[in-house]
Specification:
single chain, mainly beta, 2 domains, five-stranded antiparallel sheet, 10% helix, 44% strand, signal
């Protein structure tokens, strides 16, 4: 399991309460209908297809947070490794989770709800308090009528300034509020998405940059980082950001595109 997923699993394990009973339970033992080699979940009708990418959890491939989809879902079933054997099966509304195991794609409408976290739990092992507050702030923004849902790509842990310490990048597109199986609000928007970067210096984690942008390219330099966005270039040093006119060199460590 990668580092990002470990931290997200830790956080979500503290945030999620017991599943609430769905108004109408949906369970599909094998959405593909027959044994298949592999399967994906397709969102709407896109070319190329827009799909949910599964994550491996305890030996099985899981497709989580399907409730974030705003278009109908389809099971993309492959009889063999050859993509020419693909066939599609429409899925019912309301699905939130699917997993692929033993040549079958099993799906359900199991729901998850995010609950407030007591103050004493907000600073968790492996999750700096400043970063955890971003999760809690989005939970508060969703209110009592929607669920706060975070995809794995919401948080990326990476050393952006080559100082040996972990830094934290949050992609707003991956934080949503979901009500009745539909996304009602997203941290991003039609014109762009929020990008928030926390940097670590001497064990202190600071919010160094928060912008709304359509794209970003983060490059690591020795002791600092540069972030090129659609609206300008920033240099991040010691937890602070300053606009600069140009940049040279550096290693690309994170990219954001809409």
């Amino acid at each position: 399991m990668n580092k990002n997923l470990c931290i997200l699993t830790l956080l979500c394990g503290s945030l999620l309460t017991a599943p609430a009973a769905a108004a109408q339970s949906v369970a599909i033992a094998n959405a593909c209908g027959i044994p298949v080699h592999h399967a994906f979940i397709e969102v709407g009708k896109h070319e190329p297809p827009q799909v949910f990418t599964p994550d491996k959890n305890d030996g099985r491939w899981e497709f989580n947070f399907l409730a974030t989809a705003t278009e109908p879902l389809t099971a993309m079933c492959f009889r063999t490794t050859d993509k020419a054997t693909l066939f599609r099966v429409p899925l019912p509304e309301g699905l939130t989770r699917c997993h692929f195991e033993d040549k079958a794609l099993a799906c359900s409408s199991e729901s998850v709800r995010v609950a407030p976290v007591p103050t004493e739990q907000r600073s968790m092992e492996g999750m700096p308090s400043a970063v955890a507050q971003a999760f809690l702030a989005w939970r508060k923004a969703c209110g009592d009528t929607a669920e706060a849902v975070f995809s794995d790509d919401y948080l990326t842990v990476v050393d952006i300034d080559h100082d040996g310490d972990d830094d934290y990048v949050l992609n707003g597109d991956e934080a949503t509020c979901v009500a009745d199986g539909k996304v009602v609000s997203r941290s991003g928007g039609n014109g762009g998405t929020s990008l928030t970067i926390f940097t670590q210096q001497a064990k202190t984690v600071t919010k160094a940059l928060a912008v709304f942008t359509q794209s970003a390219d983060v490059r690591a330099h020795k002791g600092f980082a540069t972030v090129a966005t659609a609206d300008g270039i920033y240099r991040l040093t010691n937890g602070k950001a300053a606009k600069i006119k140009s940049r040279n060199g550096g290693d690309v460590v994170y990219s954001l595109g809409r």
